[in-house]
């Protein structure tokens, strides 16, 4: 017996416009092949990416879908053939055939990804592929690092234990002013922190001035020795996050946090959003967006969205990084407890237009599969299920980020 096909549900899952609440810029044509394309479906690096990730179900599924998109014949539907074909396509055409069927009406782009400034298009360039203007998400660690470099280079004295206190005062003041400027910028939809990568999500709600000064001095000393400035010092990192949370709450700008799924720079045990409970409590006026489905800590994230008014969950990056069964299981975990008005959709698209395509196609199919099961078991009506999907794809992000958009219903042809 064939399963029932739900037309109203299908229209919502496959044809409703989407707001991509978390993505990154595409590479320029000149740099389209600068990074290994295996990064389109995996967070691995080095040989774990190039040698091992190609044997994952995520890769096999991506291969099948991209081979079909590129019109490859049977026998040519392998990963190397896909890479060869994409490299032969005109870049503008490649971007168009990947972005057009995605149904993305608006993209919120974090343009602070390492390498974006040198190799990627600016965030406004992506308006070529959307019906509503692209908006910017400000990555706070990048803003802080650039500001510290500019500040110290303009100073007339050496940074050392005797002067670091003055430096901290000036740096904090300038950073606050910059965040306020961003919060007042209509192009900025929100902020993002990668504290998860740098020092973990156990962000302290207060910090001694001496600890912050020590962290600042350590960061600058390491920069002088390595010419690489990254804030991997907990006192300083937490200080910056607290500044942003306070200002963002005042100006009603959401703050995204990378949680869970990431590359091997992350300490996995510190990537669960459960560590954030104290800081969520401390800033009740600030909207927290937990990114990347918090995988594999999805249930932790769902719990936080259920018990804190100011916490929302993004269900991105699991498309296409997980197998299809893994994606369905994870979406079901989100729905176990999380209020459906607090779930936001994203592609985590980055570098390659195929990442937007794969995430869109796979997530829409999974939404249909999961909610069709709910309707079949009479846990939801078809109309209720379709309405929830529309909220997850579009309306929740539109409300949370204050975008003021009207869904363009004929976006997918």
Tell me the strand percentage band.
5-15%
Helix content: 40-55%
Strand order of the largest sheet: 1-2-3-4-5-6-7-8
The counted number of beta strands is: 8
Describe the sheet with the most strands. 8 strands, parallel
Shape annotation: globular
Give me the strand/helix succession: HEHHHHEHEHHEHHHEHEHEHHEHH
Instruction: List low-pLDDT spans.
Output: none
Structural class: alpha/beta
Measure the end-to-end span: 31 Å
Mean pLDDT: 95
Task: Present the secondary structure layout.
Blueprint: H1 7-15, E1 18-23, H2 47-52, H3 57-69, H4 79-88, H5 91-99, E2 104-110, H6 116-119, E3 135-139, H7 140-154, H8 164-183, E4 188-193, H9 195-198, H10 209-226, H11 234-251, E5 255-257, H12 277-282, E6 288-290, H13 298-307, E7 311-315, H14 318-321, H15 324-337, E8 343-345, H16 353-376, H17 382-400
Helix pairs in contact: 1-16, 1-17, 5-16, 7-8, 8-11, 10-11, 13-15, 15-16, 16-17
Please provide a written account of the structure.
With 413 residues, the protein is of the alpha/beta class. It is built from 17 helices and 8 strands. The chain has helices at residues 7-15, 47-52, 57-69, 79-88, 91-99, 116-119, 140-154, 164-183, 195-198, 209-226, 234-251, 277-282, 298-307, 318-321, 324-337, 353-376, 382-400, and strands at 18-23, 104-110, 135-139, 188-193, 255-257, 288-290, 311-315, 343-345. An 8-stranded parallel sheet has the order 1-2-3-4-5-6-7-8. Strand 6, helix 13 (298-307) and strand 7 (311-315) form a beta-alpha-beta unit. The two termini are 31 Å apart. The mean pLDDT is 95.
